[in-house]
Design brief:
The chain is an alpha+beta fold. The chain has 2 domains: 27-77 and 160-174 and 183-234, FAD/NAD(P)-binding domain, CATH 3.50.50.60; 82-153, no CATH class. The chain contains 4 helices and 15 strands. Helix 3 packs antiparallel against helix 4 (207-234). It is globular, with a radius of gyration of 20 Å.
């Protein structure tokens, strides 16, 4: 079921590595709007002033900040899906404590141990039925709720084009699938690496070609994962109505 990383620790490792490589981190700071010259993105206006650059990389997640500001098309491939997630603390009494994803009539539940005595769960209903604020998986009943239950919009969607003159979209800023696709963190990191690699290459190569290369690469990856997710949900005991049959 993959590696279970504590997000705060993992984010801290990435941030410190970026600083060590010379990245200037400006925090707190809020992006207000992209700076545009003609049809090219040339920077970002922020709460701390304007920052100009050859390329803007939007890694701000599934709100699609830059895509919406530029009026890019967002293509949808499922009905609206909301994933709820939370944490519980204590001694889990189930014998098998390995990560598990459990299907049921309404959707699925994922659970995993992520730290000593700390467990995470994620719940996805195929309908838009809201989860009760005190809900937790049956296996975690009697354990102490650690943090407030949160939610995320995981409706299947892809922004098009995910790269253009002066910009790249990476991770969920480019496309979103629900957590059952299983490698959202990997896709975020790899798309960021690819965008950085291509930006370096732009010094000596044709910009339009490299932008198209990135867009096609990320679109192909999304479509592959979309196909695999449809296949998986066809085998669900109660398949959602939105899957491609």
């Amino acid at each position: 079921m993959g590696f279970q990383a504590w997000r705060g620790t993992f984010d801290g490792i990435l941030l410190e590595r970026a600083k060590a490589l010379g990245v200037e981190v400006i925090h707190p700071c809020r992006a207000l709007r992209p700076l545009i010259n003609g049809e090219k993105v040339i920077g970002v206006a922020t709460s701390k002033g304007d920052y100009r650059s050859r390329f803007v990389v939007d890694a701000a997640g599934g709100q699609h900040w830059l895509g919406k500001k530029l009026g890019l098309k967002i293509n949808f491939f499922s009905s609206r899906l909301i994933a709820y997630y939370g944490y519980v603390e204590g001694n889990c009494l189930i014998e098998n404590q390995r990560p598990a994803i459990i299907a049921d009539q309404l959707g699925w539940t994922w659970r995993a141990k992520i730290q000593p005595y700390l467990y995470q769960w994620t719940r996805l209903n195929f309908s838009e039925q809201r989860l009760a604020s005190d809900w937790k998986p049956e296996a975690f009943q009697g354990m102490v709720t650690k943090y407030k239950t949160r939610s995320a919009d995981v409706t299947w969607r892809l922004v098009s084009p995910c790269a253009g003159r002066g910009y790249f979209l990476v991770g969920d800023a480019a496309g979103v699938l629900d957590p059952a696709s299983s490698h959202g963190v990997l896709k975020a990191i790899m798309s960021g690496i690819m965008a950085g690699h291509l930006i370096v290459q732009l010094v000596n190569q044709d910009a339009e070609l490299l932008i198209e290369t990135y867009s096609q690469w990320l679109t192909n990856w999304f479509e592959h994962d979309l196909t695999e997710l449809n296949k998986m949900y066809r085998n669900h005991p109660h398949p959602p109505q939105f899957i491609t049959l």
